[in-house]
Amino acid sequence: MAEEPITSGGTTPRRIADDYVRELAELDPLIAVYLGVNPEDDRLPDLSPAGSARLAELGRRTLARLDEAERGGAVEDEAERRCARLLRERLTAELAVHDAGEDYRSLRNLGSPVHNVRECFTLMATGTEAEWRVVAGRLARVPLALEQYRQTLAEGIERGLLSGPRQVTTVVGQFGDWLEGEVPEEGAPRSGSSEGGGGRRAGWFGTFVQDAPESLRAELDGHAVAAAEALAALRDWLRDVYGPAAADTPDPVGRERYGRFVRYWTGADLDLDEAYAWAWSEFHDLRAQMEAEAEKVRPGVGPMAAMKWLESDGPAIEGSDAAREYLQGLMDQAIRDLQGTHFDLAEPITRVESRIAPPGSAAAPYYTQPSLDFSRPGRTWLPVLGEERFPVWDLVSTWYHEGVPGHHLQLAQWVYVADRLSTYQVTLGGVSANMEGWALYAERLMDELGYLTDPGHRLGYLNAQMMRALRVIVDIGMHVGLDFPADSPYRPGEPVAPDHAREFFGLYCGLSADFLDSELVRYLGLPGQAIGYKLGERAWLRGRAAARAAHEARGAEFDLKAWHMAALSQGSLGLDDLVAELSAL
């Protein structure tokens, strides 16, 4: 494990890549928080157009350095070659998105600059007064960051580069959720809840600083109120100015923009028509499997009714604290069972935390990677959305995806081998389709290993697989402008328009209406991201099958544990490279 994985200087691709990480962490302090470096830095990134331009210029300078290194023969071995290929592909894809003006319309319900600002506070250390002072400094800068972001969106209005109206409506609602709650006036009694009148509106920021030391409380409360007021002003501007300007903007992005985003999210130029047709074959196969599994849950009623019964009357956990503990136990048990049999995990990787997501999050659970020194462990996050009852039928497979053996084993292993690769390859160079493909593969692995024999749990797993197949269908179909095929059970021959896509999704995926509404907005706001789960899993499965076949062809035994660890120790790869690299292990 690397003690100082971020290096400086030199002309090899790995050193150039890590110089890029170091310089990017200086330009974008949120990157430093994510990596767990520069702990005394209390800045926020410049979210104005000028800040975006500086990030792009750093990417161009890094590509120029890489060109020079390759001309000079610095790519001398396989490790350097793999790093150089990844760095060039990633920076080229990112610059293509930037040059198309996408920064000017970066308004969406998940992963926007404002979402990232809030999330960074959940990742910051708060164990000492000194650490809280860093929080105070960063919190004081929130109003400026939000104003810079507004300037960027306003420039987008001027350039005719706007996000779609569904994103505006959803984000305005999310910001309203973030603003709920007050900070009591000085001298008034405090409470762990956000109830009580007479306070100053501070919302989520006020809740976040409630556990701060008394010596900093007044300062932090003041910054929390100022941050909330700035957020309220941004929300009102989005509603009153940006929303009307964006009213006629189509939510789907069209084939040209979609192609750029697909390269960004998958590291590949995919054949979208082939992927769309393949997803339909997966849909029909999964539909048949779900019919069979539903018979074991509630005979004669079909998958949707069986899942509805599991949701309302099946086994459930009462209370968010109990849900968090249940999910923690699920991950701890998976580590105990898989360690030494299907994985060889270093001690830092065996630590993972289950957390409750902050209010106003998108509906989907998510995972955050450990810091580079493992002082902050990997964490899974459950959005509770105001609920206190949590059915378990779909949580089990989901936490195999988010936690163990899914995102946590891959991304924590990447951190552990950073010194063998480069910091870039195991953090910022991550390709979404690779990571989400592994996590979906992890769900399938647990099914293969017999962990999903409970009919409800297995129906939840199949429903998760169906959701990912439907994502490929509706994401490509909506954005590229395809039709439902002739063998579709829903509106054959008609266009995959957003409203029809949402209805189609709801007919064949047993998730709540609120979740599916959030998902549709997500797909429209992050075009190309959602297809990476199922297509990434396909790449992982093809790579495993090819590696097994190669071993058998030479009369060797295929060691799945060794393959897993070798595969997880490669660092990031785009789908253009993933199958070939996995096949050779």
Automatic annotation (TrEMBL):
Q: Which domain of life is it from?
A: Bacteria
Q: Which InterPro entries match?
A: DUF885 (IPR010281)
Q: Spell out the residue ranges making up region: Disordered.
A: 181-201
Q: What is this protein called?
A: DUF885 domain-containing protein
